[in-house]
Amino acid sequence: MEPGDALVNEESEAKLLELQSNIQHLENKLRLTGTEKKADAEESHTIMKKNDLEIKRLKLEVHELEVRLERCQKFDRSVISKEFQKQFRDTMNLPAKSAKDVLRHLDTEALELQRKSKSLQHELELKERTLRHYEEQQKEMIFNCDTYFENEPTEFHSLQYIRELENEYQKISKYITESEIAENVLMQMKNQLEKNHLSNAYMLQAVQREYDLLQEETELKQAAGDATQQGETEQKKEVRFLEETSEQEAEMLDMKTKFEKIKEVTGVSDIQEAESRFLEQKVLEEKLSDLKKLFAKTLFDLKTEKKQLDSKKESSIRYPERDELSLAKTRLEEQEQRKERSVLELEKTGTLYTALEARVAKLMESIETNPNTTVLEMITKLEEIIRKVENFLPYRNFREI
């Protein structure tokens, strides 16, 4: 198992723990919503009690009106009888009138009494109509109260949905901040790469200068050895050659130590590995930029949906009509569908973000200084120079020397 796979497994376990904590958090929120539902139910019960009291009050008022109507009817009858008796006495006490005049007077009085009885009957009918109107209003109020408390969706559901959207907005803003932090880390890695590139270039130039000086010295020594070769003995030649080889061996060891230091600094032993790392880094940057755009788009969509919900909430509070309640139900269903789609998109982006985070952690562990391709080319040149020096020596088995 590679260390990168181990890191990915550790990160996946960490993500699973985080998801479990999120699930527990959601369960706690569901419990809180249950308590809120109970509170809303209690509030609705109190409103129902208030409405029942109002209905009882209206019934009492109707009963009082009925009692008043009966009293008025009785009072009207007594008034009519008293008035008739008074008029009858007046007519009977008329001394200077004939029987025809008395009959005519009685007819006019009877007509007036009929007119008064009709007017009183009309007033009685009007009062009965008002009573029926009050009874219909009472029934309509009872029906409206029942339908309102049965079919209202309502403010609690809309507030709950707004809370869920706010939670999703906070999660998305958290993902965006994490992506911005990753982008800043990548920028720091790029700056560190540029600095390391300059330092490695200076080191390789110094090694190249030392090698050129060494090559010039060896050429001068060879020329001097060729000039004085004829006058020297074989023993002196061997001693001089051993001295030269020991010096060259020390210089080569120095060059190899410097080369090993360069390898430790770059942390790369193969050019193909470095190229693959740079390609992975480029793909990672592109994916991070795409992820940032996607998060920004989902954030904008959620903000617009929140504004629409706020406006719909205000309109539903101002005009609680039946048609608007049905429209609010359909809109809430559409918003729930949108919410499900947004949750699926968030899950997809979360998986993509976890994969990208794993890749970034792997790159940060494997590439501490993140070498450049030019540095690798200079390292290969240095290896070729060492091979040339080994070939230049008369003994091919340079490792044994």
TrEMBL record:
- Designated name of the protein: Uncharacterized protein
Q: Which UniProt keywords apply?
A: Coiled coil
State the organism named in the record: Argiope bruennichi (Wasp spider)
Per the record, its GO cellular-component terms are: ciliary basal body; ciliary rootlet; ciliary tip
**Gene Ontology terms: biological process:** cilium movement; outer dynein arm assembly
Q: Give the InterPro entries listed for this entry.
A: ODAD3 (IPR033192)
Stretches assigned to coiled coil: 9-137, 162-224, 322-349
